[in-house]
């Protein structure tokens, strides 16, 4: 009976109802919390985007993503910040760097696969259509990366992120 009452109080007032306000752990989440995925906050979390694909990047180092209850609040906090304030956190620069790293890794993988295919002397590894598509994708990727770099230099961070996406 006492337990049931305690549980009810926990539910109504939280487990920390007897802890002084400034000592409580369940403060509202802030966007700069170390557990919040900053990539997801800006645009998208690459680690989640490629999950269960051949390019699976493993799990994200951050644990809080858009399926968290308080996500809408912290997303709004972030979106409302003036650009100058956002720049101070450097999240956008970090995302662009991370994306560039991913593209470099992908290029290296493509190069390695190509070299291996050539070494195995199988000239027709890819069908003509597939090769054409791959060439197109690579060309487009290089274009967009160049564009992202250019926009980044011009200070158009939103544009750069869009280009990378
Ligand atoms: Zn993440």
UniProtKB/TrEMBL annotation:
<dbReference type="InterPro" id="IPR004882">
    <property type="entry name" value="Luc7-rel"/>
</dbReference>
<protein>
    <submittedName>
        <fullName>Uncharacterized protein</fullName>
    </submittedName>
</protein>
<dbReference type="GO" id="GO:0003729">
    <property type="term" value="F:mRNA binding"/>
</dbReference>
<dbReference type="GO" id="GO:0005685">
    <property type="term" value="C:U1 snRNP"/>
</dbReference>
<dbReference type="GO" id="GO:0006376">
    <property type="term" value="P:mRNA splice site recognition"/>
</dbReference>
<comment type="similarity">
    <text>Belongs to the Luc7 family.</text>
</comment>
<dbReference type="Pfam" id="PF03194">
    <property type="entry name" value="LUC7"/>
</dbReference>
